[in-house]
Specification:
With about 270 residues, the chain is mainly alpha-helical. The chain contains twelve helices and two strands, in the order H-H-H-H-H-H-H-H-H-H-H-H-E-E. The protein has a two-stranded antiparallel ribbon with strand order 1-2.
Length: about 270
């Protein structure tokens, strides 16, 4: 057990109680914790109370300090994420929606759903007026990918459709999953790690609980992604590619990926 802070080493019991009261963490009302964070912090609080009941005030205070520091870190991380969120004006949205409408009019459904997906991630509540006719066109594109065995495109299109409407049944079969898994294995065998990790990311969003069987040896190749990200950064030209690669890496490396009922994407 780590040594307690010096100021707590030889304090009388009543003073220890005062110090403990100062350290008792109070979760800010606006700070919502995930179920995992709640469980972890409640476990630490329980340990602190047990230590206190056993007369081990020094250990209790150390645990309470740990809880307070963790809450502070969670709050700082939330504030940093909020700070990094882009400020998008209504003029920006009008321009994006005009671009989306142009793809719709041209029948370019691949780009239509790709752009709509990214816009949905930015604002899950926004209505992009996707009609049943539009969905039928995208389902036809998905079926085309299935028939020709283009499982990389199939995975990507299915992912976009799930982000746009997670309640819609995409009718993905066991055979489809087999095709996507075979695609992942082929990319592994060819050592095409950029495409390998992108394919894995698409599949993770489609089914976060599915075991993609990414091995320790595969993760060693993660450096290829980091090297490519650094190359794009140094070139300072292809920032769209940089942002897509960075977001792919964040999603794949995250502990939890969820598509909420209203659509969009939640990553922890």
């Amino acid at each position: 057990m780590p040594k307690p802070p010096e100021q707590f080493e030889r304090l009388p019991a009543e003073q220890l109680g005062e110090e403990e009261e100062k350290l008792t963490p109070e979760k800010p009302a606006e700070l919502k914790l995930s179920p995992e964070q709640d469980k972890e912090l409640l476990g630490l609080i329980k340990k602190a109370r047990q230590a206190e009941n056993q007369g081990n005030n020094e250990e209790a205070i150390i645990l309470l300090q740990d809880i307070k520091e963790r809450l502070s870190k969670i709050k700082e991380e939330r504030e940093e994420r909020e700070r990094r969120k882009p400020e998008i004006t209504e003029e920006d949205w009008k321009a994006m929606e005009d671009g989306l409408e142009a793809y719709r009019e041209k029948g370019n459904w691949g780009l239509f759903f790709e752009r709509a997906m990214y816009m949905k991630i930015l604002d899950p509540a926004r209505d992009f007026k996707i009609t049943e006719e539009n969905w039928k066109a995208m389902e036809d594109e998905l079926e085309r990918c299935r028939k020709v065995g283009d499982w990389g495109s199939f995975s990507y299109q299915a992912m976009a459709m799930k982000i746009l409407d997670p309640e819609r049944d995409l009718k993905i079969t066991k055979e489809d999953w087999k095709g996507m898994e075979d695609e992942l294995e082929e990319l592994r065998e060819r050592g095409e790690w950029m495409f390998f990790f992108s394919q894995a990311m698409y599949m993770k969003i489609l089914d976060p609980e599915k075991d993609l069987k990414i091995t320790k040896e595969d993760w060693k190749e993660w450096k290829a992604m980091e090297d490519e990200l650094e190359r794009l950064r140094k070139e300072g030209i292809m920032w769209v590619s940089f942002s897509i690669l960075a977001s792919n890496m964040k999603i794949l490396a995250s502990s939890k990926v969820e598509v909420p009922p209203e659509g969009g994407l939640k990553v922890e």
